[in-house]
Amino acid sequence: MNSDDDLIDGVLTYEAETEGVHVAVQSYFLSEQSDPEAQQYVWAYRIRITNKSASPVRLLNRHWVITDSTGGVHEVQGEGVVGEQPTINPGDHFIYTSGTPLGTPSGFMQGSYGMRRADGATFDVEIPAFSLDSPHTSLNIN
């Protein structure tokens, strides 16, 4: 499945590739949906999954590990993404946008997709760690 929408030029992109499946992620702080006084911060993230392998792959499930700036961890698991379990043919890509709230002004996410090839073989694809930074936090270089 292809989408005419793509990632935005000039925005930091986090990338990883597993067994010929390439994942690129961009995150955006949503100030209009956030309420810093109530410690509610919201981000959108846009993901492009490109199949560089020779076989179609189907995205079966997702597993997210979301860490806030205090070290608190929240895990999310479920079928597909945004209500879909897309099949991505060789050379094609699938793009979707989703979001996550945090109770702190920064954090990061990482995870994996469970995939199945046309021959029935299953494997996990890395979703690279990406930062969730808002203008309500100071950046620290470690």
Q: Could you characterize what this model shows?
A:
The protein has 142 residues and is mainly β. It has a single domain, classed as Sandwich (Immunoglobulin-like). It is 0% helix and 56% strand. It has strands at residues 14-18, 21-29, 41-51, 57-68, 73-79, 87-88, 93-102, 106-117, 122-133. The strands form 2 sheets. Strands 4, 5, 6, 8 and 9 form a 5-stranded antiparallel beta sheet that branches. The chain has a 4-stranded antiparallel beta sheet with strand order 1-2-3-7, with no helix packed on it. Strand 4 and strand 5 form a beta hairpin. It is elongated.
Question: Topology, please?
Answer:
Blueprint: E1 14-18, E2 21-29, E3 41-51, E4 57-68, E5 73-79, E6 87-88, E7 93-102, E8 106-117, E9 122-133
Antiparallel strand pairs: 1-2, 2-3, 3-7, 4-5, 4-6, 4-8, 8-9
The major pleated sheet works out as:
5 strands, antiparallel
Percent in strands? over 45%
Oligomer: single chain
Helix- and strand-based class? mainly beta
Number of strands: 9
The CATH architecture is: Sandwich
Order of helices and strands: EEEEEEEEE
What's the name of the CATH homologous superfamily? ApaG domain
What is the CATH fold-level name? Immunoglobulin-like
Number of helices: 0
**Cα end-to-end separation:** 40 Å
Helix share bin:
under 10%
Principal-axes geometry comes out as elongated
* Low confidence ranges: none
CATH top-level class: Mainly Beta
> Mean pLDDT score, rounded?
92
Rounded radius of gyration (Å):
16 Å
Q: Can you tell me the number of structural domains?
A: 1
